[in-house]
Recover the amino acids of this structure.
């Protein structure tokens, strides 16, 4: 079974920074891409940023210039989200996603989600 464990959420003042971490564990043969999504109360879950196996990144417009997503070269199934210049509107539960995961158990790739970590930005 594949598990994603997130850490690093918390309460921060507007203008501050937080760094989220996510580690995928289990019988993983490969992961196509890892990303971060967020869901604010009463809103749909939305993409924040994604990084491919090759290191290509993509961000939501709201995250560009403030957030940086990266994968740990030494721990290839670990992804980080560095969030700077945080705003109250960034308040949400942040979820880690592993897309296109290949394991010995299943023929087809699957997507997995973490349990979520709360980020609260006060004004």
């Amino acid at each position: 079974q594949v598990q994603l464990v997130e850490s690093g959420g918390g309460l921060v003042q507007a203008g501050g920074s937080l760094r989220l971490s996510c580690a995928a564990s289990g019988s993983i043969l490969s992961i196509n891409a890892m990303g971060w999504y967020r869901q604010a109360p009463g809103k749909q879950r939305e993409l924040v940023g994604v990084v491919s196996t090759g290191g290509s990144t993509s961000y939501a417009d709201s995250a560009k210039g403030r957030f940086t997503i990266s994968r740990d070269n030494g721990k290839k199934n670990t992804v980080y989200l560095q969030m700077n210049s945080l705003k109250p509107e960034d308040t949400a539960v942040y979820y880690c996603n592993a897309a296109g995961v290949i394991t010995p158990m299943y023929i087809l790739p699957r997507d997995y989600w973490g349990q979520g970590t709360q980020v609260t930005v006060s004004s």
Q: What stands out?
A: The chain is about 0% helix and 55% strand. The chain has a mean pLDDT of 95. The radius of gyration is 14 Å. The CA atoms of residues 77 and 116 lie 17 Å apart.
